């Protein structure tokens, strides 16, 4: 038998640590109905990026009522805000919260594809849960700071337009994270993981072609089709795929192609994304894409200009923090289904088109591992400004992809709410340990610096533009 001796100081600290945990866990459980109401109100609103006026207002009022100092309309975005509570000098912990929906995802909270009359958007990435859980965690941490007599600051960041609008990038660029010691975030998902994750950086732009209108049958020789410019660009861009780095991704939609077939369109527009794990490769690839657009315009007798819509750095991982988060996730546990939730999940599974779905993944905590995600997030820019950690909880039926009607459905009922509550608890438990563990914060900062290239200076991929408040128009 192996005997482990626990130092007396650690033994004396154990009851206090348990009591500390109870303060935040009890508050989050006590607020369960409030959290659900906040999340469902935002789910019902389903407001798009930079239009989340009511959703942002719900979260601001919730935090203001708890004694947080609100600064609204930060970084040039009317729906962006910060909410700060402080008890004095000490660590500053930031907790991020999102609340934007996605267009084209009207969906009721049922296990079949069923839109909601009069609605077009939906929370297909679960940001209604994201904002509600993060606010709940910040409030619980506030309670703990007061109850424990700990000095420090908890700040909630209301971050709009993550879906293609890069709200956090403008907040980073404006220096709103400069005094933060550690930033925390989470995201809805179909499993429970706190991986040491990286992501793709990306840059997007709308390319606008302008030509000359004419009758497409009677006088086509006088016309110069803007749609021809878009189509020529798309053909050449697809040729680029053969000559891009293996890890790169490029995709597009035609957002405007004309109104009538018998009219040569004088305006057409395409919307492009370019991605790669390396931000510098994204910059280079984007410049190639601009030259493709210029060539397409030259060849079709049209003119082209473009507007950069957003850009995001890749996630800079922090193993020190992820180990801490993973430990808290293990303490909290996964999502256990009731009989009714199991029936809902079993009805969803056949719609996923997969044979590898295991409903037990909802309750399982994935082992801590390193991975790379092909998607992108504006949390990436935050992670290059301050040591950052995040995780996912099972708010969706296992096997559900993000940006799907199945994600909207599960996020609007009790499966999503359970994952939300778990997320709030993990965030709060992580934060209060950070206040008590300056050694962990110091180690996280040392790792943060070591992972950055020598001589690194932050440059936002989207340049110096203002937030694109109309990008969903």
TrEMBL record:
Pfam families: M20_dimer, Peptidase_M20. It comes from the Bacteria. Keywords: Hydrolase, Signal. The keyword Signal applies. Residues 1-18 form the signal peptide. InterPro entries: Amidohydrolase (IPR017439), Aminobenzoyl-glu_utiliz_pB (IPR017145), Peptidase_M20 (IPR002933), Peptidase_M20/M20A_hydrolases (IPR052030), Peptidase_M20_dimer (IPR011650). This is Amidohydrolase. Residues 203-294 form the Peptidase M20 dimerisation domain.
